[in-house]
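Predict structure. Chain length: 723.
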Amino acid sequence: MNPGSSPGLDGRTDIERAVTLLTEWLPVSLHPLARIAFNYRWCWMGAAVEDLFRVVDPAVWRRSGRNPRQVIEGTARSRLDELGHDRGYVEQVRRAWTDIRHDLERPAFAGPFRAEQPIAYVCAEFGIHGSLPCYSGGLGMLAGDLLKAASDLAVPMIGIGLMYRQGYFSQRLDLSGLQHEYWTPADLDRLPAALVTGADGTPVVVNVRMRKRSVRIQVWRVDVGRVPLYLLDTDREDNEPIDRWITARLYVGDRHTRLAQYSVLGIGGMRVLEALGIRPALVHLNEGHGALSSFERLRELMAFGRGFEDALEQVRHETVFTTHTPVEAGNESYREDEIAAVLGDFMEELPIPPAAFFGLGRKDPANRTEPSGFTPLALRTSRVANGVSRRHGAVSRAMWKSVWPERALENVPIRHVTNGVHTTTWMAGPMQALLDEQLGADWRTRLHDTAMWDAIQGIPDEKLWAVRSELRARLIDYVREKSVGDRLARGESPEYVEAAARVLDPSRLTVGFARRVATYKRLYLLTRFPDRALQLLGGERPLQILLAGKAHPSDQEAKDALRNVFQIKHAPGVGGHVAFLENYDFEIARRMVAGVDVWVNLPRPPLEASGTSGMKATLNGVLNLSVLDGWWAEAYDGSNGWAIATPEAGPAEQDDHDARALLDLLEREVVPLFHDRDAAGVPRGWVARVKASLGSLIPRFTAERMVRDYVDTLYVPRNPLLE
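Prediction complete.
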């Protein structure tokens, strides 16, 4: 049912086979449930469809990480038979599958791409759903949202990534707040994924020479609506143990293993597509991890007699590149000897001299002392590139101008497509129901219609405030339940564990700060002036703070910042006003962006390339209080949230300024506005700001708008002066 060019080889028959096997667990009346389980389209169809799996067995649903296949396989047959005789439930299943089937059968997006020659979107991580452990943070969430939006718009696209057996790490804090990491292997045979096989029924396997031996790579198919996602996997018994480890974990610390991962993704990814009979019309590199795909396509073209310059020009014409990292130090590079140790055999397969190989990855190709990096390689082998916000585009042009020394700054071929988020993934059910009532049930297909969003102003204040209050209460209930488990696991005192059941107040102003704990995110600003912060937490009109986030296992500075903030729980009178949710993941993120009142973001400019968590919060009527960087620099208009303008100064002075500005805004504007209620108990001024946020931001920062921008401005060549 999904796009592809070789029905017998591209994994569709393997998905069908897996669906057939899963139906054996189900009574005949529920066979469509197996088809729903094997297409992640269900996860953005709303709570009613998600409940089809949850009600089967809530305990299994929760323990499995909301994995629909495991719910079916892990539930007693008697319970499944009971549901199979429930006419209402059977009808709900039938309707859900009918909706998905009709979605898959829609005509493709009108444009230059076809199912036989799709866009290949290459990324090291994909955040599709919490049950698929192939993501760590914002980059993966963005990639998952883009695939979902491409499916919604029927844009012919496929995803190429890695199947991480252990995913990203799980987090546990000890009594002092120090982060500890652990990894949990995924059972791939119980995921809604299928190992792709060939005509003879054996797995499709490609080989890439690395570290003086051949590494065999197999591939799994996951269906994301209309978009097939292919995930490459080296964990095969016929590989050496060290090579089986290549795709074990996301963003491992070992540089050689990371280089091997990028080789599997880039070189192996292109060879897998060739083995499946898929010839992409365009390769979109999301960050530089897949940039070695350019060398593989060069090798293939030159093997058919094309000259180097001619082949390189074709590769460029068929490639676009998105960069996410606004500091040069964050763009990974390798010395010649490091590359040769991993890719020496592949380099020998390329009919180009080593100097050309290494030079394409340098800002100055002739400087042999400069390491080769994936960002310069991606820039040099792409027709055009983009940053992920307006400001980030300008920062990137200045940062990488030396790759094009002959061009004026304004002609550096790096544009911008500001990120967006997938609306129905991140907007909570009560808010969607309110929009159904106010905008009409078809609003999900009219996200780009700015005039439609004017109707937000007509929502009765009482109804919007009721939805916001409901979402906050839901979040607090979840936080209380989770906090009990977190505190028990840390070995906290019985009194402190029991207090978790009363932590936070469902009627109190709730501030959220959740993201990857990197130093530039400046989590520490929350406690830079502890006396003022404690006064806000314990004053006459106290607010409460909800925190979550993971520090990279190798980032000790970030771990220290996390521990210092964690210690605030010991301050007198504030223990019940602050909560830290351990092991920040997809599900925690969904709950937090829906339930807090204010979303705080404090990056050091210009290091926030875009930021998408604030966009997700906006979908739910949450107000942003953010430094003017990334997306917020082009989103803030004075009425739709609050902003901090960071001065041009040294880091310490910037930190003092921004920490004071945060506290000033909270004390003088945010807290008073939240508590300024009328006789009906509604904060009219607050609700007016929420409406301004919803109406001005949602149509501009959706993943649908982002995909349309990519198709219109990058995928189809426009200005030859920039290309």
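Summary: The longest helix spans residues 461-490.
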